[in-house]
Write a structure and sequence with these properties.
- By secondary structure, the chain is α/β, with parallel strands linked by helices.
- It has two domains: 2-128 and 283-361, FAD/NAD(P)-binding domain, CATH 3.50.50; 132-194 and 233-277, FAD/NAD(P)-binding domain, CATH 3.50.50.60.
- It is 25% helix and 24% strand.
- It is built from eight helices and 23 strands.
- A hairpin with a 3-residue loop joins strand 5 and strand 6.
- Helix 1 (11-22) runs parallel beside helix 3 (72-86) and helix 1 (11-22) packs parallel to helix 8.
- The protein is globular, with a radius of gyration of 22 Å.
- The chain starts with a strand and ends with a helix.
- Mean pLDDT is 92; it is low at 355-362.
């Protein structure tokens, strides 16, 4: 019987594991991957963080390395060092299939065993099921389609025109890489050319954001609410300059498809040989629907209801969800703040329980 089981062994789960170890709990971190950092290593080859290494550290350990802006290998290596440095108990190749709760004990059903714990921390992050629009099935099979989760590099694509759908940081980074490869690149979904530079007046953008208090704005504050409902500007890539390249053309929103012909809000195109869907993800917490968990509520966008990671069900906690408390709650450098808050809450709960036990036995 564990005090805690943490589901998810990437940055959120490891940050929580650090604090649980400091508090002296008997716990285990389980993850379906075959190695620490697999979620990062499976991303596209040229992925580079737009946050400087100084702002990517987990609790208790600086993010060190040669590059100011780490790549995916730097992040994976850092996470491996983190586990080793703090001797965190991580069990890999362990996929959680379902969870039940009976008499205040969680039964965690995995592909290898059934584990028991008194408290459960869900640290599976925001990236679950890739979202691809339904009309993708109407696209001719000769056109290669890949979601950004599975995209690796331009070398794996068919020769010819390539469409990148999605206007966030991932979509823009991939569009720039495709354009650099020399093929004709089409963009769909970029609704704004607003972008922010990585440095401003000799300081990094993140220095400014932290100094101005923007990184610590709560989702419950007025400014936090305003930022949350707006699409984040792309960071580090000049979107306007990218779309002005000779081999890049913006087509507006993708509306439908029929064989090789794709219809956009601004045009119809039949020359596309590849489509990269940088269209985000849908959350999947269906494994939290077992017996005894009927009181778990979900928000309109599919995430478990919670307050700063404290769930509706006694003994259940969440970490690594988008805007769980601040904009950084789902980021490598931001999960530490939420982990510390949860650790403080848990420590207080244990103190109250111990005092109640003492009072009952006196």
């Amino acid at each position: 019987m564990y005090d805690f089981i943490v589901v998810g062994g990437s940055q959120a789960g490891l940050a929580m594991g650090y604090h649980l170890k400091q508090l002296g709990f008997n716990f285990i971190i389980v993850d379906s991957a075959d190695e620490i950092g697999r979620a990062w290593l499976s991303r596209w080859d040229s992925l580079t963080l737009f946050t400087p290494k100084k702002y990517n550290a987990l609790p208790g350990m600086k993010f060190e390395g040669d590059r100011e802006y780490p790549n995916k290998h730097d992040v994976a290596d850092y996470l491996k060092r983190y586990v080793k440095t703090f001797d965190l108990p991580v069990q890999l190749n362990t996929k959680v299939l379902s969870v039940d709760k009976n008499a205040d004990i969680y039964q965690v059903h995995t592909n290898t065993d059934v584990l028991q714990c008194r408290n459960l921390v869900v640290a599976t992050g925001p990236f679950h099921t890739p979202f691809i629009p339904n009309f993708a099935k109407d696209i001719c099979s000769s056109i290669k389609q890949v979601h950004s989760r599975d995209y690796v590099s331009p070398a794996e694509l068919n020769q010819g025109d390539t469409l990148v759908v999605g206007g966030g940081d991932s979509g823009v980074q991939i569009l720039a890489e495709v354009a650099d490869s020399g093929c004709a690149a089409y963009s769909s979904g970029v609704t704004s050319t607003a972008s922010l530079p990585q440095t401003l007046f000799g300081k990094t953008l993140w220095w400014w954001l932290k100094s101005l208090g923007i990184l610590s704005l709560s989702r419950y504050s007025y400014l936090g609410k305003q930022i949350k409902k707006r699409m984040q500007p792309v960071i580090g890539t000049n979107v306007k300059a990218l779309l002005a390249r000779d081999n890049v053309k913006a087509l507006g929103r993708t509306l439908s498809a029929n064989g090789t012909e794709l219809t956009f809000s601004d045009a119809k195109v039949s020359s596309i040989k590849n489509i990269i869907w940088a269209t985000g993800y849908k959350p999947d917490f269906s494994w939290l629907s077992g017996e005894g968990l009927e009181d778990i509520k979900f928000t309109d966008d599919g995430y478990p209801s919670n307050y700063r990671g404290i769930g509706d069900t006694q003994g259940m906690y969440f970490i690594g969800l988008p805007w769980m408390h601040t904009r950084g709650s789902a980021t490598l450098g931001g999960v530490g703040v939420d982990a510390q808050y949860l650790a403080h809450h848990i420590a207080q709960q244990i103190q109250v329980a111990d005092e109640e036990l003492i009072n009952c036995t006196v």
